[in-house]
Amino acid sequence: MLSERQKRILWAIIDDYIISAEPVGSRTVSKKKGVNVSAATIRNEMADLEEMGFLEQPHTSAGRIPSQKGYRFYVDHLLKPYMWSKDDLMALHDFYAYKVDHVEQAIKHMNSILAYLTNCMTFILGPNLSESRLKHLHIIPLYDRLAVSILVTDTGHVYQQRLLLPEDIPWSTLEKLVNLLNHRLSGALISRLDQIVAQELTDELQRHVDHFEKLSDLTNQLLHTEQEDRVYTSGTTRILEQPEFRDVDKMKSILDLVEANDGLVQLLKHKTDGVQVRIGYENDLKAVQDCSVISASYMINGKPVGTIGVLGPTRMDYGRVIGILDFLAKDFSRRLSTLYEKE
Amino acid sequence: MLSERQKRILWAIIDDYIISAEPVGSRTVSKKKGVNVSAATIRNEMADLEEMGFLEQPHTSAGRIPSQKGYRFYVDHLLKPYMWSKDDLMALHDFYAYKVDHVEQAIKHMNSILAYLTNCMTFILGPNLSESRLKHLHIIPLYDRLAVSILVTDTGHVYQQRLLLPEDIPWSTLEKLVNLLNHRLSGALISRLDQIVAQELTDELQRHVDHFEKLSDLTNQLLHTEQEDRVYTSGTTRILEQPEFRDVDKMKSILDLVEANDGLVQLLKHKTDGVQVRIGYENDLKAVQDCSVISASYMINGKPVGTIGVLGPTRMDYGRVIGILDFLAKDFSRRLSTLYEKE
DNA sequence: TGTTAGCACTCCTTATGGTCGAGTGCTAAA
DNA sequence: TTTAGCACTCGACCATAAGGAGTGCTAACA
């Protein structure tokens, strides 16, 4: 294990490197307060820390930079709780001055404040409501064979869909179908609706609804709640201000990731509670193995439904970003919950 | 005006530069077929072309590159109709193999094929349906005070909205309101609905609908068809493969533009019919004054409703991109029109 | 008069070598 | 165990030189 002094030195190096982005030399460390030993002693300790894998040396006569293992140790053991600065609080205050009145707007708004505060690329994985339950299903004829179906969940979310009705089916039959579905499926998980129909209701529907064979496609459509995982991003260009991203090829691989929605979803799907930090190789995706991804879940009515996260260089102000993300994710949950209630 | 030989030389230089991205020397031009004069003669002609502003010289002993004026002349007078290559046709064929069943999917799909074919950044400005007309308005109560309104246009588009109903208003009153609105507004331009209400219907509504003062907010909401101009982009990273975009700062200014949706909308709004080419300074936006933007309108049922375009370096294969865009915009119109009919 | 070969000249690109300085590792003394 | 001292390493920076692509000009030629 590391001695107290080694911890202090490691902390000092990372703390300096996070700001300067330059290898940190022994003299610089010795001048930091809390470290009251000479540069030579630091050099010995730094050699030890390097041997243990916490530090790296870009070349023989350069200072040291933290390794990914170093960052991991820093995050796990050396982090101090983040203190909001006056500027941050001001920005936050301005942020709250805006009223948002629907979910998408709230997401975009949250994204931009997060990007502003962290100076990183930020992501919000849109709410996935497949865990909510069916409240009611409606079908409304419009004209000709055009109709609209409306599916309402217990969370107050409304899915709407245009439908093309099959020919030669009287309206009363359709009403009967919808009534039956409502009766049987009310309260069921919306992600399982089609399964339930296939496994439990087909017989019943065939018995009670005329020409059900012509209506099974329509039934599937009615119950299909297309829930593509949508990722909102912001701050793409902020990352370009970081010296480690001034390389076009590196940037390209990250932008490729952003454009391929799936990749992002994979990157952000996030199981644990609270704030999760993934440093470098801890990420599965190759393109971000020299980046860090910090993420947190947000909830609607107590259920985790989405993720909010940032991507930045491994040289990231972890304390700050973790603190901000923790606060904003909780706050976002509150705001969304009220939005879903009120709307 | 330019002599035939000068045109041929200008054409040869641009044609070469589009591929090589390197200044073109007199020897290179003299070797091109169709130009049967010596390098020395070419040099004289190039000096003339430079004096006239069609060519530029990066430095004294370098070859020539086309100026923006040169590109403009090339596009206006020297372009040959684009011949689809076998590879392109293959890609197009694969593209058509996929079935799309709603508009957003069609847009994304079109975007990616366009990016693939042109190797540029591509944009599609989502359909703006404010020129369509109201067909019918519905309101459906869900539970508590939650309801859904449905607004159908003559183009078959459906707007849906969640509503929070005011307290103490009986359902029959709401029905009356909606009936009246339907009766009076059917066939009106949806972009003008609220105006018409304000200017012509307020009195009537007040006379026939009880407690209309409590319902005027709701009325506005009912008729509000939030139609944010949404821009879909693709191929952001393809542009990074072009040597002129290997500069991080340049890239940043373009990405900033993409992130600020409004900028893009401004860039793409497009009045003329057919394919429009804007080279360098012909663009209003500073960030793209060393790029070219090529765009075309697409239609739904004969009305232009949106724009599809590409952004790339001024050194762009204009013939190819114009040809592709012309074809795809027309094709996209056809596909969307059938989608809106069938759906 | 228009075209072409020849040639000096320009200026970018790349390679080379040298200096400077930050920072190290080692040694010896406190 | 800590510290001062010192030789050493290596990248960053700069100046200079060589190489080459391409020009502009001149003079000769059809």
From TrEMBL, chains A, B:
Superkingdom of the organism of origin: Bacteria
UniProt keyword terms in alphabetical order: Repressor, Stress response, Transcription, Transcription regulation
Xref: SUPFAM superfamilies: GAF domain-like, Winged helix' DNA-binding domain
Species in which this protein is naturally found: Laceyella sediminis
Keyword Kinase included in the entry's annotation: no
Functional summary from the UniProt entry: Negative regulator of class I heat shock genes (grpE-dnaK-dnaJ and groELS operons). Prevents heat-shock induction of these operons.
Similarity comment text for this entry: Belongs to the HrcA family.
Domain Heat-inducible transcription repressor HrcA C-terminal: 104-322
Name the UniProt record assigns to this protein: Heat-inducible transcription repressor HrcA
